[in-house]
Amino acid sequence: MKRSYVIKPELEKIYPVISHGKGIYLFDQEGKRYIDGCSGAVTVSIGHAVDEVVEAMYAQAKEVSFAYRSHFSSEAVEELGAKLAEWAPGSLNWTFFVSSGSEATETAQKIAIQYWQERGKPTKNRIISRWMSYHGITMGALSMSGHVLRRKRFVPLLEDYPTISAPYPYRKPDGVSLEDYALQCANELETAILRVGPEQVAAFIAEPVIGASGGAVVPPDGYFQRIREICDKYEVLFIADEVMTGIGRTGKAFGIDHWGVVPDMITLGKGMSSGYTPMAATVVSDEIIETIKNGSGLIMAGHTYSANPQSAAVSLAVLKYVEKHSLFEKAAEQGAYLLERLQELAAELPLIGDARGLGMLCGLEFVKDKDTKEPFPLSHNVSGRVIAKAFEKGLLVYPAVGGLEGIAGDSVIIAPPLTITKAEIDELIGLLKGAVESVQQELR
Ligand code: PLP
């Protein structure tokens, strides 16, 4: 290739050029085939090059691609909003459309602050989040994120929001039951609210299953139920960040559905359009919308591409595909098989300390010593090396490293499209095993 003028994540690296994709596979221009074992960035949940989506994209483009949201609504966006209201729990019936997960969480942050202003409580403007978390890369979203690696250059410019620990069952203190651990972690929220003062706290934000900063860390039962109780007690809104977990990824419509808890807002992205177009959303409860409607009547957020008909039509086609092919159920079923195969690998390979996950969102954590769970120094770049080896072998896996930099969390995410078959999972496991074994050899 001639010289590149495109800024890539690693400036010196030469990236292969993508040619095409089909189902769980991607092909580069050299003809090399890759299993998309992480759906890109846990995004392509229905697989690549699905005809129905491409047709919906074309049909909408022939009519109109862009109409500004302050001028027009569109059939596609109305139908999409209705579908999300049908799937979302409780009274989460209203959707604000944006184009990325970071915009979705930042919109939720703003709506939370505005909601309390409209209720005459303008001092409620702090957002509590968790140290092990990732809610996006823009400054507001990063302020709510704990991801050390992504924050550290910008810390002086970020809002100094309070954080609490997230439950991390693999590293739970010895001698404490999972049940008690869940409550201890949740009760940290109460302590944080009381320390800051309930009159200062607008919302608490959490990922139902921790993604990029932890590698598919699933909370114990009881955790989110207690979080909901605490939020209710102190008038704090609960935002479930489902950018990674939403739209069936964990085997239910939303990750939080596993615990029967109803948040006040849900943020979505990634799987919402399966990567066919940039699309994301903040789904909001009746109570919040009614309050704003009866107050200023105007939500102070929005972007040029919010609710554009083109992205809405594509996302709607994706949701219809998910429904038609029962992909929530498939993710639960095939995800259980994937986890079983990953746990076999963990039992066999000394480098893997933990294999965990929920539905089709799984993770492996690498450790130096399985008994003590001592992590490798980050300078060993173990997960980076596994990712590179897997790439060489034709398998894509996603990094989840640097969330708790220097403490733990040298992990990768395995999250293939929800459409993956058992035979394809076996193929994925074979390549992954080879990659981990190669890195194990190097580290000897
Ligand atoms: N929230 C969560 C839970 C995420 O995993 C991500 C991205 O990985 C984001 C927010 C940010 O989304 P985006 O990269 O689309 O801005």
Structure description:
With 444 residues, this protein is an alpha/beta fold. 38% of the residues lie in helices and 17% in strands. It is built from 13 helices and 14 strands. The strands form three sheets. A seven-stranded mixed sheet has the order 4-10-9-8-7-5-6, sandwiched between helices. A hairpin with a 4-residue loop joins strand 2 and strand 3. Helix 11 runs parallel beside helix 13 and helix 12 packs across helix 13. The longest helix has 22 residues. The radius of gyration is 21 Å and the shape is globular. 52% of the residues are buried. The model has no long low-confidence stretch (mean pLDDT 96). The structure holds pyridoxal-5'-phosphate.
Features:
Aspartate aminotransferase family protein, PyrdxlP-dep_Trfase_small, aminotransferase, seven-stranded mixed beta sheet, binds pyridoxal-5'-phosphate, pyridoxal phosphate, 14 strands, alpha/beta, 444 residues, 17% strand
Question: What order do the helices and strands come in, and which of them pair?
Answer:
Layout: E1 18-22, E2 25-28, E3 33-35, H1 39-42, H2 51-63, H3 75-87, E4 92-98, H4 101-118, E5 126-130, H5 139-143, H6 148-151, E6 163-164, H7 178-196, E7 201-206, H8 223-233, E8 237-241, E9 265-268, E10 280-285, H9 286-294, H10 309-324, H11 327-348, E11 352-358, E12 361-366, H12 382-393, E13 398-404, E14 408-414, H13 422-443
Parallel strand pairs: 5-6, 5-7, 7-8, 8-9
Antiparallel strand pairs: 1-2, 2-3, 4-10, 9-10, 11-12, 12-14, 13-14
Protein name: Aspartate aminotransferase family protein
GO molecular function, one term: transaminase activity
Family: Belongs to the class-III pyridoxal-phosphate-dependent aminotransferase family.
